[in-house]
Design goal:
The protein has about 325 residues and is an alpha/beta fold. The protein has two domains: about 1-55, no CATH class; about 70-315, Alpha-Beta Barrel (TIM Barrel). It has helices at about 1-50, 70-85, 90-95, 120-130, 150-155, 175-195, 215-225, 245-255, 275-290, 300-305; strands at about 105-115, 135-140, 160-165, 200, 230, 235, 270, 295, 315. Strands 1, 2, 3, 6, 7 and 8 form a six-stranded parallel β-sheet that branches. A three-stranded parallel β-sheet has the order 4-5-9. α2 (about 70-85) packs across α5 (about 150-155), α4 packs parallel to α9 (about 275-290) and α8 (about 245-255) packs parallel to α9 (about 275-290). The longest helix is centred in the N-terminal third of the chain and has 48 residues, at about 1-50. The protein is globular and about 110 Å long. The chain starts with a helix and ends with a strand. Bound molecules: zinc ion. Zinc ion binds near residues 113, 164, 168 and 204.
């Protein structure tokens, strides 16, 4: 009987024990959850508001957008690999090492208009390649088809391609629709052939309408639409003047200040890849400026590293 009664008692208490264990487990789970929650949110709340009791704010995403510099280097590397004729990885790395810019050191941007041209453009690019420096080429669209080699070489050397209209047209003489066609056609051709996006426009004859004029308003609206900027220049080398020899071009290119006392550092220098004397002068200008600590960069690089930065629809003459 006693044995039987004992078995009865066990049978009666078993559901109670199970319930008790369940309740204990539940309490333990709640305690663990509370504890881990407190551990996880308290530091963020303290950091965000100084009050541990504040409502925790969500932490920002840990994946930031790539910087302009990272995008620029990725773009250059793409063209080094595509058009650079690099036999191996070491050659790619050596080329890319020349693209590094020290934002603290002085910079100058040489620009070459009206090309690409037979012979002359390659002479300018020879100088860029020899010294590992970059320049900006404001091209006419009508020259693209016959000079694809030179354009690919520019991109593989980290040089910048800018827009100088299709037929070297004075945009002041164009209607809004004509202006869109004359400039947009160059952007489209370069993008379609090389996958490259042009960001700069230099108006032929440096004519782009007075401030507030219809021409200028139309042009700047196009620049904003296409994320581009207008590029004037700080000083000209006067290399299109018959009287200007390679020696004179060289002296204008390396003078620390120009006739209006503007310094060379931060300058945008106007040249043309149309005459051999310009290429000769550039071959002397580059080593001279490198010896003085200058970095020869593209216009976009110069603007991005300037205090003002690059803005679509702006007109730039210098970065100082
Ligand atoms: Zn021109």
């Amino acid at each position: 009987m006693a044995k039987k009664r004992k078995r009865y008692r066990i049978k009666a208490t078993k559901p109670l024990l199970i319930m008790l264990a369940f309740v204990l487990l539940l309490m333990l789970a709640v305690l663990i959850a509370l504890f881990s929650c407190t551990l996880g949110t308290a530091p963020a709340a303290v950091q965000a508001t100084g009050a541990p009791s504040a409502v925790p704010t969500p932490t920002p995403s840990p994946t930031p957008e790539p910087s302009w510099e990272e995008l620029r280097l990725a773009e250059i590397e793409h063209y080094v690999r595509a058009y650079g004729n690099c036999p191996d990885e070491a050659a790619v790395e050596a080329r890319m090492a020349t693209m590094v810019i020290d934002p603290e050191q002085k910079m100058v941007a040489f620009t070459f208009d009206d090309g690409p041209r037979d012979r002359i453009t390659d002479l300018v690019l020879d100088v860029c390649e020899q010294y590992g420096v970059r320049a900006t080429f404001f091209i006419n669209g009508e020259n693209i088809a016959a000079h694809e080699e030179q354009l690919m070489r520019m991109l593989s050397l980290g040089c910048e391609i800018g827009n100088h209209t299709w037929e070297h047209t004075n945009v002041e003489e164009l209607s809004a629709a004509e202006m869109r066609e004359e400039i947009g056609r160059v952007n489209d051709a370069v993008r379609e052939r090389f996958g490259y996006t042009i960001r700069l426009f230099r108006p032929p004859y440096i004519k782009y309408g007075e401030k507030g004029s219809e021409t200028r308003n139309t042009l700047l609206a196009l620049m904003i639409e296409w994320n581009m900027a207008v590029v004037n220049h700080t000083r000209s080398t006067h290399d299109t003047y018959d009287t200007y020899t390679a020696e004179k071009i060289y002296r204008r290119g390396v003078a620390e200040t120009d006739e209006s006392k503007k310094p060379l550092a931060g300058s945008i220098i106007l040249c043309h890849d149309k005459a051999k004397k310009t290429a000769e002068a550039f071959g002397r200008i580059v080593p001279e400026l490198l010896s003085r600590g200058y970095q020869l960069v593209t216009v976009s690089e110069l603007l991005h590293y300037s205090d003002e930065g690059f803005h679509a629809g702006w007109i730039y003459s210098s970065a100082n």
